[in-house]
Each structure stands twice: as structure tokens, then as C-alpha cells.
User: Fold this.
Amino acid sequence: MRRILPLGCLFVLALASACDSSETDETDSTGTQTGGNIPVGGSPVVGGAGGAGGDPIVGGAGGVQGGAGGEGGGGGAPPTCDGTPAECAALWEENASDRFDMLVGGPQDQLEAFLTAVPKGGDLHNHLSGAVYAETYLDWAETENFCINSSTFAASASGSCGGATQAVPTSGAFYDDIIGAWSMEGFVRGGAETGHDHFFDTFGKFGAIAGAHRFDSIADVAIRAASENQVYVETMFNMGQNVGGLTDDNWSGTLNESDLQAAYDLAINDPSFDAELQQDVNSVDQARTGYRTALGCAGASPPAACDVEVRFIAQVSRTGSRATVFGQLLGAFEMAAQTDAIVGVNLSSPEDEVSAASYDLQMAMLDFLHQQYTETGVSPLRVTLHAGELTDTYGTPAALAGNIRKAVEIAHAERIGHGLSLLSDANPQALMDEMRDQGVLVEVCLSSNVQILLVSGSDHPLATYLDNQVPVALATDDQGVSRSSMAGEYLRAALDQGLSYRQLKLIARNSLEHAFVPGNSLWTSIGDAEPVAACASNDTMGVGDPPDATCEAFLAESERATLQWRLEHNFREFESQQ
Ligand SMILES: [Zn+2]
Assistant:
């Protein structure tokens, strides 16, 4: 069993001086709650004073076994197997699959423990502000003397509480009420407030704390990932505000598709563009070093979370002004050309409401920028988009029928977040064929989907995507708000979607195959777990064992393959103990 960093240490590290307090715009993705029938969640792995406690499932006391999936690991009795490494790997996989099958029909806590420990690859859809548990935010807020509005539960950094606000509680009814207002904890369906609204309203309530704690929040995400045996996370937060603001300032009137070239020229030719861009880049680079400082990664005993590879996705809210959205998208491409901390861009906020009217324009923006930056090789930025996160209740007919397709065909999205409205497309079979052939992965967020949109079970298109060989990966979306975790998503996949152990294993492999980290893949055929020739298993070495010299040379050239090798190592280690 691997050591888990004492989570409380985060609370005394990297406070205001190290944080970018300029970001308070913490809009997010999706979410919902009231979960289906499956509790998925857990208490805050990181910190948290206990408080309201989450759903009983995955998560529980925090730490959990598993480990960060570092290179070493081990623990438990050495496995006994007389075959070749490849033969033993097949045997151990079978054992793990059998144990999973047994647990699915047994006590849920044992299944939770199994799914917490199982290697999971990466979390590709993780909103930073929504990833942190309310208890953790309250700990930070209490330390820094924030105030909480007694009726709206919105946090503010006023420092002098009174009147409508109170000091941050550490227990009691007010504390519990705040947890409920800042997450889906205790939310009951059927009242005046929908899960959809409750979920999205949380972000503005803790936003002031989240904005002042970016480094701590990333560290929190890394710790949780390590505790659930992940090796990789792409977390998204708002960035590029300077270039976004400059672009907006330079444009007067309504920005339309025919204006994109002019707006682009105005922005990049502005005398202050380079300086504004540099500030945006600096902010991101500081986040990359800042969270590692918060974790103590340079110390003598770095925690397992330091072994989790973290990359950033530039999150741009659909609800900003047209020119601001364009400027932030433009800025994301520019930033990625300067720092490899940023690997992708995503549009967030619901596809319903005000953003629906701008959807086509935003797709055109990404197409324009693809031509400017991607086709020319100027920027390595990749595109993943929330698309089809809709049901009849929230989506216009046009959005339901077209958003996923437009994201793939116009905006060059290589991954789709949610993709729930698949079957509303005019030709879903052709769309799935296209996604499969182009390798467009669907980031499936089961907790969020049932909580926000009440989509679960056979209403969820996950099985349809799987049947049509469209690659999918499980992701957390907003695990703090959802009171979930990656293991919780796996639990839903097992119990609500009926996935098998080997399907979950393929999903974990998919997450790294479609991560935006650079480098060639370890696999020539991921479905068959067929590695490249340089790393092909033989009688004395299987994938996941220490690589031989040829394979090591291959891995040295590829961050992706290195992560994939770590995942296979972790699978070998995990399965051999089942
Ligand atoms: Zn999302």
C-alpha cells in the first residue's frame, strides 16, 4: 500500500501569496445531482473537516489504497506464477476479472475498495473549481477569515463579517447548510429547485475561495488522483483573460463570423498584445510550479501526487461576450505555443440558455483558429468540447440535432464532453462511424449526467458508443460538487451501465491513448493490447515489466507511451494481487 499524503498539509501551504487571485470567474461544466440511485462519491479526500460526509460509496475516509501508480509500488505477497510474463499477465487479468464479477453482486463497500485501487489512467474532463470538495474550501476560507452570506451562502473575502454575513463555521447547522449549498450533498429531487440549477449555482458561491486557491486546488486534484491510482489529469480552468479582454476592447459592435479575420488582426497587431499574452502565459506557468511547491515535490519525501502528470485545459465560458470568447480561444492557441503546460481548449457552461445562440459562431471561431494555428503548425493546442450535454428539457431542437456533429466537423474537436444527445442527430450511425474512424473520444461523466440531466441507465448512450467502437473514457467533471470521484464513476459504470472489468480496463487505456499529452502511443492496437514492436512482450518481458533497452529508448521519446507503460505496470501490480 502506498503512502498517502496527509491531506491536511495542504491547508497551510501555498496561500494567498502564491496564488493568482485574479481569477474568480469559476464557471463550469455540467453537473447535477441527486444522483441516480447509486451513491457515488465520498467525502473529501483532501482535507475536509468531515462535515456532511458524502455518499457512502467510493471515497470514504479519504486516502484509499491504490497509490499514485508510480514506477515502484508493490506491496502484498509476491504473486506466484510459473509461466512467462505474458502468460502470467493473462492469468492475473483473468483473476481480477473474476474478482470484479464476484464483487459486483456482493457488498458494495468491497466493490468500492476494488474500484478505488484499480488503475485508471487519466481523468480527461476535470473542472478545477468543481473538483474541490466544499469542506476543503471551507477550511481555506476559515483560515483566511472569509465571510459567508447567511442566506445565499456566497463566500466573500471581506474580512469583517456581520450583517448579512457570518464568519466561517467549522461545524453545526450553518456548516452543513453551506456544504449543501456548495455541492449536491443532501440534495433532494422534486423540490422547487432542479438539480441542474442547484449544481450550476454552486460555483458562484465558492468562487471567491476557488479563485484565490488555484495552486492548492490543483494540488488537491493531484492528491485525489494519486489516491485513486491515476497517473494523469487534465484539469481545466479559466485562463487567457488578458488576451480575451484586449480582444474585446478592440472590437466594437457585434462580432459575427465574417468579422473573425478583422478581429483577429486587430488583436494580434495591438501594441500591447505581446505583453498581455505574456501575462497570461506567466499565470499558467506559475500554476504549474505553484501546485508542485504546495505539494512539496522538491522535498526529500515528495508525496505520490507529485508522480501524477498534470496538464491544463484552457476553459472558456460560452457565456462571455462574443469578442471575449474569441480572444480567449485565440489566447489559448497562442499560450500553447509558448508553454506545454496547456494542452487543450474547451468551451464550458451549459449549451442551453444564452449560449445556444452563439454555438455556431463559436464553432466557426475554432475552425478559423484551426486554420491559423493548427494547420500551419504554429500551435500544438488540441480541442475538446462539451457537446450534446443536453436533453429535451434543456436543448433546442437544433442544438440536440447538431451540436455533437458541429463540434467534430466544424470545430475539429478530438474529444467530446458528454455527447448525450447522440441519438437526436439526424444520422447517429454515420456520426458514430465518423467519430470511430477519426478516433474522436467521448468523455463520459456519469455522475454529472444523472445529477444535472437525469440521464442514467439505458437512457445513457454509453452502451451505444461502446457497441459502435467509439472510444470512451470515464471522467469526473466536477467531483467536488457531485460528491463523487473517479472510482465513483467506475462504480456507476459497473452498477448502472453494466460494464465488465475488461471494458473498464480498455476505458483506462483509452484515457491515455486520447490524452493531449504528446508522443507516440505504446499501442498499435489498443483493443487487442498489441504494443509497438519496440515494446513487444516476449518470453522474459511483458508489457508492464521493466522495459528492455529497446523499449526504454522508445519510451524516452514519448510522454504518452511512458504514461501508458506506467499504467500497464500498475495493472500488472494490481491484478497480480487479486
Ligand atoms: Zn464539464
In short: The chain is about 45% helix and 10% strand. Residues 29-30, 125, 127, 386, 417, 477 surround zinc ion (CB under 6 Å). Residues 273-295 form the longest helix (23 residues). Residues 86-118+521-575 form one domain.
